[in-house]
Specification:
Length: 363
Amino acid sequence: MPKRRFQALVLTFFLAACIGVPLEAEPVVVIESPILESDMAGLQEILDQSIADFAAEIDELTGETLEKPDFLRGSSYATSQAILSSLSIHDVTRPFIAIGSSAAYYSPWLSTAVVSELDSLDVTSDVDAGACVQPLVLRGGLPLNFLLDGLSVMGTGGYMDATTGPFGVTSITASLSAQYVAFRPKSGAVAWNGLTFSLGGGFASQTLSVTIEADEITQTIPIDPDGPGPLAPFEARVSVEPTIKASIETLLLSCNAGAMTGVTFLKAFTLFAGGGVSAGWGRSEIAIDSKDPINVSGYLGDLIDTPGTIGVTGTADEYADIFIRPYLAGGLAFSVGAFELAIPITFKPVDAISVAVFFGVRL
């Protein structure tokens, strides 16, 4: 029971990975029944019927795991919030390049109740929460004063391709924004950073996968080879150990418009704050795939001529959604010479927050 609960919990959280509305999942169980030796049509029919019973059990399991509208919506919002934190910048008056990471969390009212509910989650659970982590993000900015005084451009890019045990993730993120300094920064021991307006957009493509080794499913087949005849009845055992690979492919496009200001103390410590609006479009597809050998033991096991397999393939209907979400932004930065540590934070009242950490160099 603990093993099954853990497997259900892993699969439930894994499916929190993208866009969100009800998806009409239609997994299909594919059976290639073991073929007995010739002249055993009666026994073949009994074997086929027993294996067909597996289809109902596996179909019910996978069908429940595919419909997660709240999880999907939450993950979409968390992803868009993570992109915002990478775009939040307090100063592009000098060229810079930085490397860092970001993480975002979504839940209505930023509730952490889902953490206390972990022990009660199973494959049918659908929690309105989501998270997004970008472990490696590169960003850089360049002033474009030769085009327009106060104009600058900034770009970010992230990539991840990793597998740990049964888990895998491949993701590519990119964003580009333009900034315009409407009011120039001041200088001094306590200096206002001016007011900067920004307009930009982001792109995210992500494939998440997890491999779940479910508990063994077995069927015991009572066989009476000659009915009322003299031969004694016997039993055969048919089993399968499903190994299910679930994957989610996500595409997200977003744009944002905002404003940022701040104050710098002693040319070393900066506090910045602002806000804006983020809009986006997302599409997602959830797929489950497995193909496992059918094990037959007992009397029938010695009569197998061609081994069989049972698997499941299923894809949720493609879904596209458009969202518009206001956000607040802020953070702090420490500078020592050309080096800078920046910690931008974005917050969407009242359900999403993201934090990023960047270490960079200003030229």
